[in-house]
Amino acid sequence: MENCYWPHDAPPWLLSPAAAADDRAASASRSHSEAEKRRRDRINAQLSTLRKLIPKSEKMDKAALLGHVVDHVKEQRQRAKEASKSSSSMPSEIDEVIIDQHHESEHIKASICCDDRPELFAELKAALKPLEATILEAEVTSLGGRIKANFIISAAMANQHTLKMALTRLLISSGSGSSGYGTRSKRQRFFYPTSR
User: Fold this and answer.
1) Are 97 and 162 within 8 A, CB to CB?
2) Superfamily designation of domain 96-190
3) What span, in angstroms and rounded, lies between the C-alpha atoms of 133 and 154?
4) Using one digit for the tens of pLDDT, what is the confidence trace for 153-176?
């Protein structure tokens, strides 16, 4: 036992109860200190990574850096919300009608996506007339021969179901495709130039 080291020059089983308790407390304190150091090292490594990701943050203290990161995350969240809002108004390749209640009001929110064609709005007006529906607000986006129109509608004689049926009939009666139309919308000329 020449090579063994005991803190009190005696093996633990020969120590008095008070000395053994002191030895355990010192060992627990060392373990706690080592765990705290590892935790601080992990935090500092993550803060270092944040400094690399966030512009102009090299000389900030930890609290200022975290405040800057919070502001940056809020800004990115707002940008994502705006991007998703604008992408929801872009026409898709799928013909569809979506009807929903508009915020807790009696108005109906309607969306139609289909091929763009000159007579679409006249057809839409004809479809809404028997329902005594009035378009209060409209947002129309046309891109690449497709159109998406979002409406807020006040309908005296219609509910969500009857409005969806009327707009779906409009899609079905249109032939659901540009092949049935000899005339193209002026908006499409930018995307599909005519051959000469």
Assistant:
1) no
2) ACT domain (3.30.70.260)
3) 6
4) 887 777 788 888 888 888 887 654
pTM as predicted: 0.46
CA distances from 73 to 48, 70, 78, 83, 164 (A): 17, 5, 9, 15, 39
State whether residue 29 is helix, strand or coil: helix
Measured CA to CA, the distance from residue 11 to residue 5 in angstroms comes to: 8
pLDDT tens-digit readout, 69-97: 888 889 888 887 776 665 567 888 888 88
Q: Cα separation of 134 and 131, whole Å?
A: 9
Give me the residue label for tokens 């998406």.
Answer: 148
Every domain of the chain and the residues it spans: 96-190
Residue of 134, 142, 145, 140 whose CA lies nearest to 192: 145
Please tell me whether residue 139 adopts helix, strand or coil conformation: strand
pLDDT averaged per 10 residues in sequence order, the chain, 196 residues = 54 66 80 91 90 80 87 85 69 85 75 87 87 86 87 79 86 57 44 46
